[in-house]
TrEMBL record:
GO terms for molecular function: 2-oxoglutarate-dependent dioxygenase activity. It comes from the Bacteria. This is Phytanoyl-CoA dioxygenase. InterPro entries: Phytyl_CoA_dOase-like (IPR008775). SUPFAM superfamilies: Clavaminate synthase-like (SSF51197). Signal peptide: none annotated. Pfam families: PhyH (PF05721).
Amino acid sequence: MRSLNEPLVSNGYTLAMTSERLGWLEPRTANLPMEQLRETYHQQGYLWLKGFFKRDMVLKFRDFFFETIAERGLQAYFEIITSREYEEFCTMPHLWNFYKEFLQGPPYLHRRKMLRFNIPGEDHCTGGHYDLIYLRSGTDRLCTSWIPLDDIPVEMGGLIYLEHSDAAGRQLEAEFRAKNAELPSEERISAYNRNMRANGWVSTNLAEMAERFNTRWLVADYEAGDMVIHSPYMIHAATLNNDPLLRTRLSTDIRFQCVDDEIDQRWAKDWSLGDDL
């Protein structure tokens, strides 16, 4: 594993560069037995699959995204979200068949999907959170796939994970559930209710979070073709894009569950601004 030359910053806070507070994600190959992959996922709260996709397929979609934006401007973003190209990427047979076996049942892909692009020089990024905060109206037996759509070295600020935080997320959610018990049903499932922080984030101070939970943030040099799966309780965040080559970071996050499990209907429509999720 390589050493980092520059500190990682998230929302104005610098992560400690010690081995007690910063480490590296552990990759796996997708051709391992499915039972072994499931066990790793349950133990770690995440599963980083190296080279899961064919690299050229990922880069082809990346080119489609940037060429469309270059030709038609940022207003084309929402057209890309609902485009045939994006839907075909998210439902490709290789991915669909993987989840059918991984989930041990017919998969369901949430229609609400996100494409995220982060430009060097921005001073804010995603704070520490776990996904179930935004999906409380459905099952917790769901998986998030975070897919880098280009090579994303640590300096570009891809997702980072708080080690062993699946258990912490479960504890936090149990506490919120108790606090929210007396709230009206619509407010109880919201990530923005009176018992939550703004944005539903656990904290924007990632350095303090590592100290509070006595653990470390795990980072990675992602490559086009990789996929990370994480549990709805796994705490994760992002750091600033400080790429010296000034490249825009592009990724997508999509969510799968068994079709027979309860579905959060708020996620059964395309993402739009102001949907409060």
